[in-house]
Amino acid sequence: MDLFEKFKNNRGHLGKWADIAEGYWIFPRLEGELGNRMTFNGQEVICWSINNYLGLGNHPEVRAVDAQASKDWGLAYPMGSRMMSGNTEMHDKLEKELASFVKKESAVLVNFGYQGILSSIDALLGRKDVVVYDAESHACIVDGLRMHIGKRFAFQHNDIESLEKHLISAEKIVAKTGGGILVISEGVFGMRGDQGKLTEIVALKKKYNFRLMVDDAHGFGTLGATGAGAGEEQGVQDDIDVYFATFAKSMASVGAFLAGDADMIEFLKYNMRSQIFAKSLAMPIVVGAMKRLEMLRDDPSHKATLWRNVNALQKGLKDRGFDIGDTNSCVTPVYMHGSVEEAMTLVHDMRETHKIFCSIVVYPVIPQGMILLRLIPTASHTMQDIEETLDAFSAVSEKLKAGAYKNQEVATLR
Fold first, then answer.
1. What is the pLDDT of residue 5?
2. Per the CB 3.0–4.6 Å rule, which of 157, 188, 243, 385 could disulfide with 329?
3. DSSP three-state, residue 400
4. Element (H or E) spanning 97, and its range?
5. Is 359 helix (H, G, I), strand (E, B) or coil?
6. Cβ(14)–Cβ(22) below 8 Å
7. Confidence at residue 414, expressed as pLDDT on a 0 to 100 scale
């Protein structure tokens, strides 16, 4: 059989919707300036679907630095990988500043968050090692673990009893192999919005010998007294052995970093294949990241405004009877019940009638019969945005409960 023959009859769980969904529900096109209101399908909508937490993506000071750095350096410099010809004083400086901010000895830049954490897991783990990870870890973690040729266990989401059970099994294995144990959790889980139980995980270090990796993509810049993330928020930053964060959320840019003890970071620096064999981050990205870090670190008003909006939105949803789960972060999920077709029809109504744009998550990402609408509050949103959104949610919820979205032909809605 030809390798590609199978694609004709099986495009996957999401791909099967491509003919009617692409460009609207899947791969939608948001246009215009980044902000609380953008353009979708030719009309202005209140946008709750970009991770521009601190509103820095379109901040005039940030835009000015980005523009000047692009003018000064272009996108080509430096050429080559960091190891060969792509290192600069500015790259080194940014790593030092990031390490200091998250209270670690050292840090190393990576070009993309997905690529970086996947490659770091591959570098850290050998065939004798065992990894124990939260079952709801992000796809980048799961894909990194697929490369691990040793044993791996998934503990039930945020279930410390389940984690401990697997740690017992892991210790038995490494006692025979002579390897080590890595536990992986997230600072904030991007769908549910709940923080990883880092305090409880760290407490298990008294009983078991393991190292802890935390993917803090959604916590960095949003949680903790200084914005240093979920570890700072929970008082266990010192006990995170491998700290990861991306520039794609609070920093509203491209790139990421890992931080921890100097010896571990040096090992990653010399052994992460995705960095050894990839072009270095372009200078405008590095210069722009320095400016974003400065604003994140030195101006707490951005985080304060963000949390004012988070609290107002989440309280408003709960007051109106909506289920937002166990979120204790900025990520705001709203759970409803209905079919995939009802979900698509509801979102169409939300966007076209109420001018509200938020992300839709359906099976197989969540259980069949569930609808998850995910909202990402930012510092750019206003109280008017929040009130209009709450009214829209009340309206579509009533229609969903009344069965108004059933039996509508989804393909005719676009």
1. 87
2. 188
3. helix
4. helix 89-101
5. strand
6. no
7. 63
With b for 16 or more beta-carbon neighbours within 10 A and e for fewer, the 48-78 pattern comes to: bbbbbbbbbbebeebbebbeebbeebeeeeb
Give the pLDDT confidence score for residue 177 in this predicted structure: 97
pLDDT for the residue 13: 73
CATH for 3-53+301-412?
3.90.1150.10
Cα 181 to Cα 126, 194, 319: the distances in Å are 10, 25, 44
H or E element: which one contains 337? strand 332-337
Q: Is 256 strand, coil or helix?
A: strand
- CATH code of domain 60-298: 3.40.640.10
Evaluate whether 3-53+301-412 and 60-298 have a shared fold.
no
What's at 19, amino acid-wise? D
Q: How far apart are CA 344 and CA 410, in angstroms?
A: 7
Low-confidence ranges of the chain (pLDDT < 70): 364, 409-414
The pLDDT of residue 34:
93
Q: Which amino acid is at 273?
A: R
- For 11, the 3-state DSSP assignment is coil
What is the residue extent of each domain of the chain? 3-53+301-412, 60-298
Q: What is the pLDDT of residue 412?
A: 65
- Report how far residue 321's alpha carbon sits from residue 394's, in angstroms, rounded to the nearest whole number: 9
CA dihedral 89, 92, 97, 99 (to 10 degrees): -170
Q: Residue 367: what pLDDT? A: 79
**pTM of the full structure:** 0.94
Please state the three-class secondary structure of 112-158 as a single string.
CHHHHHHHHHHHHCCCCCEEEEECCCCHHHHHHHHCCCCEEEEECCC
**Residues contacting 68, CB < 8 A, separation 6+:** none
pLDDT at 19: 80
